Amino acid sequence: MSARAVTEATFEQEVLKNDKPVVVDFWAEWCGPCRAVSPILDAIATEHAEKIDIVKLNVDENPGLAMKYQITAIPAFKVFQGGEVVKTVVGAKPKPALEADLAAYIS
Amino acid sequence: MPSVESNGCHTYVTNQGAVLRDIIIIGSGPAGFTAAIYAARAELKPLLIASSVEIGGELMNTTEVENFPGFPEGIMGPDLMGQMQQQAERFGTEVVYDDVVELELDGPVKRVKLGNGGVEEARAIIYATGSAYRKLGLPEEEVLSGHGLSWCATCDGFFFRQKTIAVVGGGDSAMEEATFLTRFADKVYVLHRRDELKASKIMQQRAFDNEKIEFVWNVEVTQIHGTEAVTGVTLRDTVTGELRALDLDGLFVAIGNDPRTHLVHDKLDLTPEGTIAVDGRSSRTSVPGVFAAGDVIDPHYRQAVTAAGSGTVAALDAEHYLAALDDAGAADEEPASAEASVAELAVAN
């Protein structure tokens, strides 16, 4: 299962009002590390589907949200819980490292 | 000892049940993929371990590559790497997207442990892990990394539209980053600790000609300001020692690279510069059957083309090494001519 895309139109419903913690992957087409880490996120999303949602937000197409959440580097992963950012991880990482960063929400 | 059996095409089965390959290549930059092209064309069926998130190496973070021969109009770094991979795969290279976590290099069977827990084995290893961005060495780097502090202009420049930023460094990559960042930023300072640049003339001139770029000579960054995001830096004048503050929205660091030797620094001999030591112009490391190529052995040139050439050397060296092993094996199987073979081997060695 690949992480689904969210936009400025769906962000509130899919992320802010989500009952589960949501990892938002801020990415762009031109970002090599974003593309490299994408299958890793898909795998984490599949393996922990009952605990968390993982969604992708294209910063080119949704610059307002990128600005609102003060993104200055991508890939950036922000964990939202109850509409608030509770954790930020920046940069592509191998799966075990990313799982360790997200441990509080997936274990 | 693992029992090693030949089935006639260099595929062996070891006591752990894994396939014993001829060559495993670690690294997926120009050195790794070029080694793979040569090894694959020599029908050695190389396995290339590409890493999980840094596939393609340093060129994946560059835009236009203008100095790789054969591309008169230039080529985008990621496109070049994609094409190298296609070329390697066309001849039978197997590519694995995982990270090496541990290596066993002693003895005739080299073992490579992967992040997914799997173990791969081969008679020869080509180590081409490249280099990593050098850090400034300031405590605030960890906290501010990704929050206005970056090592990758092509990745993060986009977020600095109409901002004031700085690039630290004086080499080609610093000039490239500064020039690239003017697409977004209103103002780009280049902070350099000397009064002249190491960068090539064409890259220097491009930066000098750019109205948005301002050079600040003879300074080093001694502190990065900001708690949640970069707000500026403290600069120390390297001549007078004077300190001053510079307000910034972002800081890009391009002060060089360090060879990535953390998996092998206690297994292979290194040079005083920290690169893997190789024998003369060859790729032979201090351990038989282990060859090294690309930036991890090169403290000086570090170009895509030199890395590719270095990968070629490693593949040819590995090929010769394997051929010599096969010859020795064949000699063992012919008791009648054993004495003659031993004599030949002694000469060959």
Automatic annotation (TrEMBL), chain A:
Signal peptide: none annotated. The record marks 25 as: Deprotonates C-terminal active site Cys. The active site is at residues 31, 34. Disulfide bonds join 31-34. The record marks 32-33 as: Contributes to redox potential value. GO terms for biological process: cell redox homeostasis. The keyword Electron transport applies. One of its GO terms (cellular component) is cytosol. Residues 1-107 form the Thioredoxin domain. GO terms for molecular function: protein-disulfide reductase activity. It holds the Pfam family Thioredoxin. Keywords: Disulfide bond, Electron transport, Redox-active center, Transport. Belongs to the thioredoxin family. This is Thioredoxin. It comes from Agromyces agglutinans. The lineage of its organism: Bacteria, Bacillati, Actinomycetota, Actinomycetes, Micrococcales. The gene is trxA.
